[in-house]
Amino acid sequence: MSAPVVLPAVTQVCLVGGDCDIRYELLSRETARRALSTYDLTEPYTNTLSLSTVSLGAAVSLLNDLNWYLVRFASDALVRDPSISDTEWLSRPLAEAIRDGRLQPDETDDTYRIYPIEDGALAAPSFASGRDAFDHENELVVRVTEDEYEG
Fold first, then answer.
1. Is the pLDDT of residue 9 over 90?
2. Pairing relation of β-strands 89-91 and 139-143?
3. Is the Cβ–Cβ distance between 77 and 53 less than 8 Å?
């Protein structure tokens, strides 16, 4: 009997579309299409685009490469790194702060943006603070910076 194959945990990126079809907008632009061409793209929720990458640093670098498009076509860019949390996402500014060493991962679980999941889509988010018990089955939980929370 062979041992089960254990896949390595990977960092994930989720781009949330704004008022347009995020997949179409990104893949119809040559530079964005090239930046995304090496990734397997999925749509875990309506009008989102998700992919896996090797690390938090690689995820932040990809988001930086796509910045021109994200400002125009995305309402949010999220990163989930298994070394920080298996269930909670990081906002882009928070992921950048951790990557740059300005924050430690254990200093990031006090302020959240919560997206309810309704009929396979992300609904309008709300904010929460503290260590509430979140419903990870029906909510997408995103750790955010203090500035994002207060803004």
1. no
2. parallel
3. no
53 contacts 10 by C-beta, under 8 angstroms: yes
Within a domain: 5: no
**The pair of three-digit structure tokens given for residue 122, joined into one six-digit string:** 């992300």
CB neighbourhood size of 68 (10 A): 11
Smallest Cα–Cα separation from 34: which of 70, 71, 62?
62
Query: Does residue 55 form part of some domain?
Result: yes
Place 30 in a pLDDT band, splitting at 50, 70 and 90: very high
**pLDDT tens for residues 87-130?**
999 999 999 999 999 999 988 878 999 999 999 999 999 999 88
Contact 39, 51 (CB under 8 A): yes
Domain assignment present for 109: yes
Q: What is the pLDDT of residues 55-81, one digit of tens each?
A: 999 999 999 999 999 999 999 999 999
Contacting residues for 84 by C-beta, under 8 A, at least 6 apart: 56, 90, 98, 105, 108
SS3 percent helix, strand, coil of the chain, rounded to 5, is 30, 30, 40
